[in-house]
Fold each of these.
Amino acid sequence: MQGQGHAQPVRRPPHDAVLVLVRVVLVALGVFSAGFLAWAMLLRLAVVTRRPVDVGVLVTAVAADVLSIVLLGSEPGDDVHTPGGYLGITLLFGTLLGAVVYYLAADVRHFQRQREAYTAQQYAYAPPASPYTTGTMPPHTPAPSAHSVTPMPRPPLPQPPIPAPPQRPAPARIEQVRAELDELSDYLRKHDGHREGGHEGGR
């Protein structure tokens, strides 16, 4: 099975100023020659486009010019006063008018398409923009592997409760409790002393 061949590269079209100059010169050549050289512009069009239609128009214009020359040459005298002479003049100027209109329309359309094809070709062969020249780095996405398996998330392990440190009473509170105990001891000692003295006096 054969693949498709590569497309032929499109040549860069001439500058617009050059194309306008060539068109003006060829049209002026046909007009100033009274239509006898109208085929020159069609010849240039057929060579540039290489289309069978343009070649057929060139052959028709050349045949019309030759026929008009024959009709005018068969006219007796210098003045045109026969139907053949009038037909030759009409055919000559009609061919000139048709050649000018057809040449300008076909030539403009051809080079416009060539310019569009050349622009598309330039875009097709343009190198990709480098991230080092544009200043932006493309995002890096790793390709997924066929053997890579997404790990399942594990539940968190229960943490043992941390015992709270024993709270120690403040030193001032200890001193206060100690003082109260001392006062209570003195009070009990005195109270016991009074009770012992009362028992001895009763005896």
Amino acid sequence: MVAQRVALHRHLLDRINLGVLDTLPRAELVDEVRPLVREYVREKNFPLSARELDDLIFDTTDEMLGLGPLEPLLKDDTVSDVLVNRYNQVFVERAGVLEETDIQFKDEDHLMRIVTKIVSAVGRRVDETTPLVDARLSDGSRVNVAVRPVAVDGPMVSIRKFSKQPYTLERLIEGSSMAEAMKVLLVAAVKGRKSIIISGGTGSGKTTVLNALSSQISNAERLITIEDAAELQLQQVHVCRMETKPPTLDGKHEVRQRELLKNALRMRPDRIIVGEVRGEEAFDMLQAMNTGHEGSMCTVHANTPRDSISRLEQMIGMAGLPMSQMSIRQQVASAVDLIVQLERMHDGSRRLVSITEITGMENEVIQMQEIMAFKKTGVDAANRIQGFFCATGIRPRFLEEIAELGLYVPEEIFNPSVHLR
């Protein structure tokens, strides 16, 4: 069905004046599209009843008013990412594997019209002076756009689709992304207000895990989320969402994550959740974790737990504060309790590969201990990663502290001699 819709879109693009498409009322567009769809159905000899034909006409009209050729892909639940390299080349990711599609835009101007529609819907702009933009679709899907002059071959669009069904820890276990024992430990850590950094590379599932972990926070708490482009799917009753704002044409009135974090501290939050820490706001995030907002969470781009600590140190240095390396590390060691490390593997699978506890400082070195991990054992005949989840035998130091809150973690999940389920 998707292939038929793609072909129908091409048929319509060749016959409709795209310049007036957005100016037509829906009823008039239906009148324009109806004879063209009927002609196409007759040519292809599709056996459609009158009602099915009307449904196809109305669906097609909705797609023309939406994001055009991209609409069938956005409705396809098997697609997780849509990647437009240029107007006549579109890839998708299904089950971690990239594949090229038959979808094309009429020309570069058509693609640019869709791009403008996407970014303007969230109050942003894209042009030669602002060629790089982050935005989101109405369903929460994350969008990144690059246009000329930085995009040499014309507009490029990357869409990370928003899951219609919120991810839970149970779904991650079903998908072999983590073990049940890992869930037990992390749920106790979240409920026990341990501050957590979720670390991983691009596409490793950091936002997915952040959403899943945040679902364990009590409805009695006030949560404030801060993101460049809002995509978190928190299910709690008391959630306040904030999003950065790009500068205006004169380069003024930009609102960065650091300003949002400072403002969030004045809004009586119980926890602050930052979609991704990527700059000087790391200092303010750690300050929040250290000053009564325990249990806050954020994500960082890093390939190992130790790398994530180094990244935090570098980002705090970007704030330009008169702090020594030692004082920066003390801030990190006192603020962060756990690092959850994710990895996207070469077969496209995403796994939680390490849960690491920060235990303090020794001399000038932040001390860490791995609690649970994923161990690779090889690949199968289909080149899929094989391995198992296991405990290292080390008990987290915070277990005694959360036990005072009535939170208990069974001792057997820390047994290193058995594979975690």
Amino acid sequence: MTDPQFTSDIEAIRSIDAVPVILSMVKHITGMRFAAVARVTENNWVACAVDDSIDFGLKPGDELVLESTICHEIRQHQQPVIFGHASLHPIFSLHHTPRTYGLESYISIPIVKADGEFFGTLCAIDSVPAKLDEPAIAKTLTLFAQLIAMSLDTQTRLHAAKVELDTANELGRLREQFIAVLGHDLRTPLSAIRMSADLLETKVEDKRSLNFIAAIRNSSVRMGVLIENILDFARGRLGGGIPVQRKLVDDLQRTLRMTLEEVQVSHPQATFIHRLDVPTGVYCDALRISQLLSNLLGNAVTHGSISEPIVLNAWAENDEFVISLTNQGTPIAPHLIPLLFEPFSRSEAGQRCEGLGLGLYIASQIATAHNGSLSVTSDSESGTCFVARFPAQFKWV
């Protein structure tokens, strides 16, 4: 049974999407058959994530006797330990850990957070020898350990942000300033993750490894969306609303279609029906309108029924441009509808709590910035329908 004091550590590692990919990459790069992320404290060694092909017997939450591990020593000196053939090694042939667990090959990299806190190790083991002399192996695993540490730091910052937001005055300026600074700070580890993925891509050629790298990059894209939502929220609260740059756009229909296609690729389980009848010369910020539509589509996929099609329509009506999106599912109670467009109120509105609950708020702010509106109706017969409309100039051809 997992010690309750380590539950949060295990959950923190589990919530990092890239960890399973990292463990698979560690096994692939080293040729070893067991990889794990371990939480190592003064008294405990606890497995947080495991990729085991040798039936070593550990699963997340399991513990080893700390003194029986080399990680106990790594916690003290915070340096990597690597050997590929323990029985021939001048030091580790006599060490108790390889003898206790029947190990021949071993690599363990410390995971150290930005404030200097030692979290644990990224490690790999095997009962057979492995070729670990190539310097690129240690460098790559060190990079992986740094990525895990940066992700943990990001979680800490987000948790601190939530605590601050929960306790700050609803209208307090300090809350918005804190989020703005936080959003900028998050870009630093995100840039490191993206650059690291690009670097890894130049070092490998096989398709399987490239797929793993693509998964890391996709995770960073999702983090980027979250950061941009935070920054848009801060801009909307601190300034005069979300900024838009309106101009006459002749290819808005193409932009909306591309946005829909991107969401379709990300959510192949959902079915979409669309009718786009968009004129040329729409006076708008095309990128912001695309963001509005993407947020509405994401909300429909996440909170609607994917067994029924999601219906998208866009058209010109008199002097207005209109986007309508309808999905089926459990209708929203009337008294909860006003909460949908408020930030950080998703759980209050009875919705599942993926993300920060900023998508509909930002969509509403984009409509407002175009001197328009975003409204919603919801009932069991017609489904839930969001309608965005704003005044526009049209150049009919």
